[in-house]
């Protein structure tokens, strides 16, 4: 297949490599051309204009930094993708963007006969390189079926509902991650404050009901005081705010998401915004406990 | 070794069987004698008095329903274990009781030359039967070393600090479990309310950062509307209150535990106290969403 990749940053670059390695004809565009050009050793064809990249592409993977940037690349002057997209081709929007932005992009592209899936990912740069991303896809089942062999080259694909639902799933992910980090932080702080061995407790809980990826990875970061991101607290806060904004339009009350959001806001306001989200531990850790974990 | 088991209910009975099966001489006492008697097929020796059970025992396993019941069996008239316990023997208190109760029991027994470990468990009846309990031990390392071969017959043993810290670890477990259940409930409710496929989202998130035992087991219960306990919401609420009481004596502020406690209080007050703690999902699920999950 002919595949265009728009955006070859930390995530898009290894994804483009994986697609080219599998034998697809991959064109790549990036705002800074050198990042696209550096992929030519992998057989990726770097191009200088968005329209040149998407012309004749059957699949267009978009992996840019935000909803507005995606909107600009798809629809903005002077080089809007929409004017060069082939009718019948499929845009796979893999950035994390608001649910409403995804729905609106799908509607606009449908007018040009272009199919649309929103397919945000979790798993980070490591997942992109190793092609083990979790890919949450919103859109028509038929549309997914046509491009699923391409997506499977990047990770594990799950269809989670109509357009926008990929973003909804990603928000669910971010909600669980943010609250669970907070829960693990409070539990380890309780043990430390009570005079117990928090590292031993973390080990004891592995394999039981309290076990989670967060206890394993972020729990260890908390105990080591290793808050080099990973995922920044500012991003966790932004995601929780997006969750709460959406919940409010759905008349949903989500008290734990609300509480976790307030905690990450405190962390960001006290200078911890660029630290890993596991640094929320430093907020609950009492002054009298072992201070090894403080940044 | 000679081992006495005080309390042969859902948890104590299979534990006594596992100890006898391994070749230890096991005496068993239970308030309702028939429950102890029913273990004689496994080679356990049922006895009618607490003091008869513990006489000459090197290890005394206590698995009763609460701190006050443990206190009564150890120290209460007319049949207090303390008067028959051998100096140099070890009481392993495996019930979930307040940290302060554990410390006070240890002090009292020390006056009679009796060693003490607090070793609460997680893993439930299934873990007790299969000898796969998570056993969190507080006490002196030397004291644990002497009895560890016995404890290993019941599950995985971790030493987590001095006396009381086993209970502290159990509270950490209950905190993480209660908050994570709430997080999964909010995330799945968000997806359902937004028109996504909550079951597909749960599947998509397995293996990623949002993965947890709770997402796997309680997430599935939520989606099936299966709230047969498991662990009752009243017990989850009691445990979260114990966490918050302890936190307050330690001058710790635990906002997520606080929020989760309020949620379980709402659930219990609205008649859900005897449902599994996963039923907290019914509180956040909007009226307009798929109602399959309602009890």
Q: What integer is the average pLDDT of chain A?
A: 95
- What is the terminal-to-terminal distance of chain A? 49 Å
Assembly form of the protein: homodimer
The two chains with the largest interface, and their residue counts, are: A-B, 72 and 72 residues
CATH class division of the largest domain in chain A: Alpha Beta
CATH homology superfamily of the largest domain in chain A: NAD(P)-binding Rossmann-like Domain
CATH fold-level topology of the largest domain in chain A = Rossmann fold
As a percent range, the share of helical residues of chain A equals 40-55%
Topology (SSEs and partners):
The structure is a homodimer of 295-residue chains.
Chain A: E1 2-6, H1 12-21, E2 25-29, H2 33-37, E3 45-46, H3 50-54, E4 59-62, H4 67-75, E5 90-93, H5 99-110, E6 115-118, E7 121-122, H6 124-130, E8 133-138, H7 141-151, E9 155-161, H8 165-193, H9 198-205, H10 213-224, H11 233-249, H12 255-272, H13 281-284
Parallel strand pairs in A: 1-2, 1-4, 2-3, 4-5, 5-6, 8-9
Antiparallel strand pairs in A: 7-8
Structure description:
Two copies of one chain form a homodimer. Chain A folds into two domains: 2-163, Rossmann fold, CATH 3.40.50; 168-283, N-(1-d-carboxylethyl)-l-norvaline Dehydrogenase, domain 2 (Orthogonal Bundle), CATH 1.10.1040. Chain A is 50% helix and 13% strand. The first copy, chain A, has helices at 12-21, 33-37, 50-54, 67-75, 99-110, 124-130, 141-151, 165-193, 198-205, 213-224, 233-249, 255-272, 281-284; strands at 2-6, 25-29, 45-46, 59-62, 90-93, 115-118, 121-122, 133-138, 155-161. In chain A, α8 (165-193) crosses α11 (233-249), α8 (165-193) packs across α12 and α11 runs antiparallel to α12 (255-272). The first copy, chain A, is elongated, with a radius of gyration of 21 Å. Chain A starts with a strand and ends in an 11-residue tail after the last helix.
């Amino acid at each position: 297949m002919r595949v265009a990749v728009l955006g070859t940053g930390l995530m898009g670059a290894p994804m483009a490599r994986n697609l080219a390695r599998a034998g697809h004809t991959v064109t790549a565009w990036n705002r800074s051309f050198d990042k696209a050009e550096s992929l030519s050793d992998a057989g990726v064809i770097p191009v200088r204009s968005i329209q040149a990249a998407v012309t004749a592409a059957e699949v267009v993977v978009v992996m840019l930094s935000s909803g507005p940037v995606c909107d600009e690349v798809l629809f903005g002057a002077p080089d809007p993708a929409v004017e060069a997209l082939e009718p019948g081709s499929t845009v796979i929007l893999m950035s994390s963007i608001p649910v409403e932005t995804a729905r609106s992009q799908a509607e606009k592209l449908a007018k040009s006969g272009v199919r649309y899936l929103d397919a945000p990912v979790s798993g980070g740069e490591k997942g992109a390189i190793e092609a083990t991303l979790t890919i949450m896809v919103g859109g028509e089942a038929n549309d997914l079926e046509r491009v699923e062999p391409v997506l499977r080259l990047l990770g594990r694909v799950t269809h989670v509902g109509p357009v926008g639902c990929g973003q909804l799933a990603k928000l669910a992910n971010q909600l669980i991650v943010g609250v669970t980090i907070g829960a693990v932080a409070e539990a380890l702080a309780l043990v430390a404050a009570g005079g117990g061995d928090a590292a031993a407790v973390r080990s004891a809980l592995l394999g039981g009901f309290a076990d989670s990826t967060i206890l394993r990875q972020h729990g260890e970061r908390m105990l080591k005081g290793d808050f080099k991101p990973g995922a920044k607290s500012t991003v966790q806060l932004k995601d929780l705010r997006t969750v709460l904004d959406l919940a409010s339009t759905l008349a949903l009350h989500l008290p734990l998401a609300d509480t976790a959001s307030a905690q990450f806001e405190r962390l960001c306001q006290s200078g911890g915004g660029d630290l890993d989200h596991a640094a929320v531990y430093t907020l609950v850790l009492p002054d009298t406990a072992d201070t090894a974990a403080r940044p």
